[in-house]
Amino acid sequence: MSASLSLPSGFEFLLVPYRYLPVGGNSKSILNMPWTIATIARYCRRHNVDIIHTHHRFPELAAVVASWLCGVRTVTTVHSLLTNWRIVSYRSQHIISVSDVVRRRIIEHYGREEHRVVRLYNPISPMPRELPGDVLRLKNEFGIPIQHRILLYVGRFDDAKGGPFLAEAFRSNVFEREELTLLMIGDPSRKTVGSEVLENGNLLIIAPPQEDVHRFYYSADVVILPSIVDAFPYVMLEAGLACRPFIGSNVDGIAEFIKHGENGLLFPPRSTSEMALFVKQILDDQRASAAMAHMLHANVKGMAGPYEYARQIVTIYHSHVNDANSTV
Fold this sequence. Notes:
Layout: H1 33-47, E1 51-54, H2 57-70, E2 73-78, E3 94-97, H3 100-108, E4 117-119, H4 134-142, E5 149-154, H5 163-171, E6 180-185, E7 194-197, E8 203-207, H6 214-219, E9 222-225, H7 234-241, E10 246-249, H8 252-257, E11 265-267, H9 272-284, H10 286-301, H11 306-326
Parallel strand pairs: 1-2, 2-3, 3-4, 5-6, 5-9, 6-8, 9-10, 10-11
Antiparallel strand pairs: 7-8
Helix pairs in contact: 1-2, 7-10
């Protein structure tokens, strides 16, 4: 059960019946909480549901209260680093965190028992293969000069992800070199692509989210993520799938997965000088950057895919059903 409509990838291959109950729209209003709780409880009784699995705090709270009425077990997956709603958050019987740093936050800040919280990295699906001529086609499509090196940013254009910070740093020529394009993908406020030619001839391109985002990774010379807060970013993993060098802020889930100098480079949050230094290092030392990119690729390839992830989730479900049966 979730506040967004996205089916759990991998479950269709396992012999475990599941139903998807979306919770969104007006039902996210606290005024509709009693109706939401009653709907969930009625649905669970009618369909003999054993477990409710939620992915956001509003449906989790509704599911926990509904479970008191209909006796089902509850599981929630926590994707973000949050600090508010301490009393009502993460009350499910089993809590899955997407990173170790999220797990620590749930235990230390929200006071949940350690045995209830397990870390399970999100699954990573294979990326479409790079095709000959992809880089040239993308540069022609976006008006990027052939000789330009591409710095790629993918994600929301907000302060938490560091998008505005990176754009302003690029405009101020912090990287101190020419023939660069900063390609920023993921600004939902934009309907079309915006390009800005700087005084030194460098190019800043900000574009809305793209469906074929793999093309941008394959075209990148370096992927940058200057987050202030980040639980466990997919951008980092997708850079690894594409075997591209990654530079990120030394925070949270990024620092958990990236080992500085081994599979990427880490700079202090908001440090334009060190960010620029590491971009220069990546662009100037192709042997070292390729070695780090290949190490990141190997790390990501070793992570669970959708099927293995779903199998681990089902194992958690079975443990809950068995626990419930043992108490009957």
